[in-house]
Each structure stands twice: as structure tokens, then as C-alpha cells.
Amino acid sequence: MLTLGVDLAAADKRTAMAAVEWLPDRAIVRDLVLDVSDAHIVEASERAEKVGLDCPLGWPEPFVAAVQAHRIGHVSVADADGAQWRRRLAYRLTDEVVRNETGIIPLSVAADRIAHAAFRVAGLLAMLAAAGHDVDRCGGGRVVEVYPAAALCRWGLAYRGYKGRGQQDVRHADLVTALCRAAPWLELGAFDRLCRRSHDAFDSVIAALNARAVAVGRAAEPDDEQRTVARIEGWIALPTGPLSSLIVGPEE
């Protein structure tokens, strides 16, 4: 099995992609690249069983409805103070599930800079669909939405403070070491240095591991009620087992 992980930025620059091959007793990072184009992602997806995209795959339904209503000048604020109404505009159902399960508050695709990457992913999903891939936003097809910080949290690893410069670079390198200790079956090989140098590269590896969790049934799926919304808004696939469960999957 081959899984692909993509840490998607708004442009090719800062977009990283990792390809991980899964063998019965180990996982090998076969490729890890930076500054990745949409065309490169689509091409690489042809060879992967599961593709983990670190980017919201949709927008909150109330937000979309409010924008449509505002376009014709008839927005109705349901709550007296507006606070709860604005929260429903800002966060998707899956964001609230992640918040409840991990305590991590995902970035708002409706009200934060991550929306720029979401604009890109909308076009990328269209390209993947045109190439014949199932892009079910619930994660049932080739593509699944992942959130590296939440995955790291679920796997008992540090998930805050490793992105950036200065002292954070040290924390990032320490996190790579911690991952290798927690998953001794993971072989970074020639890409070890790149993982330690670039948190974008590291996140793409985590995205590929998260994609594996989905592929072997070790990630949370939406229930029937949640699925109706998740098909539109997207669904973050939180891992449900330890890192070791990723290597205990169906025979390759």
C-alpha cells in the first residue's frame, strides 16, 4: 500500500508532499518534496491508495447560506447577541468534533487565512475528480481530510510550538526524534534531514500516516447524521488508535 500526505499551502511554495510505502513490518518514506504543484499532486495520487490532504475540504453550511443571503441583502441573525450565530458561521461540524475530542481549535476556513488554501483545494478536488478519483469529502474515496496537529495529539506526541523559527526549530527537530522513537518501524531514510529542516515536510509525513489510519480502519468516521453535513463541509479523520496500529493492517 502507498499513502500520500499533502501539507497544502495557498500556492506551490510551502506545499509539501510525502509518499509512504507500507510493508508488513515497516513503513518507508519513498518520496518527500517541497513546492508541489496541483498537477504533481494529481499525478502522484494515481499511485496512492489514500491521499491525506491537510486543508479544509469545504466551508460551514451556515456560512455559505449567510453569504448567499447577504448577496441579496437579507441576513437574519438567529441569536440575540450574535455570538453563537457567528460561531456557526466560522466553524464546521467537523471542527467542533475535533475541538470536543482533542481540545484543539482548528483554524476557521470561513474567517482565517487558511481560506486561501481552501480556495486552492476546491480546484484541486475538481482536478482529482476529473482524473477519475472519488473525492467524497467524508473520506470514503481516494481523498481524506487530515489535521496533523490533531493526529499528533491522538498519538501522544507534541502538537504545539514546533512551527516557526528560532527555538521552535529545536522543538521541531525534537518532535521528529520523538516520532521515530514512537514509530521505530517508520524509515525516513534520506529524507530525515528534510523532515527536521522543514515543518511543512514533517506535516506531510504525518498526513500520510493519518491517511494510512483511514485506510486500515483506525480513524473516526462520521455517523449517519453527521455524514449528511460532512459530505458538503468535509470531515477531519481523527486517528482512533496508537501509532503502532498503523502497521497492523490488512495484508499488503
TrEMBL record:
<protein>
    <recommendedName>
        <fullName>DUF429 domain-containing protein</fullName>
    </recommendedName>
</protein>
<dbReference type="Pfam" id="PF04250">
    <property type="entry name" value="DUF429"/>
</dbReference>
<dbReference type="InterPro" id="IPR007362">
    <property type="entry name" value="DUF429"/>
</dbReference>
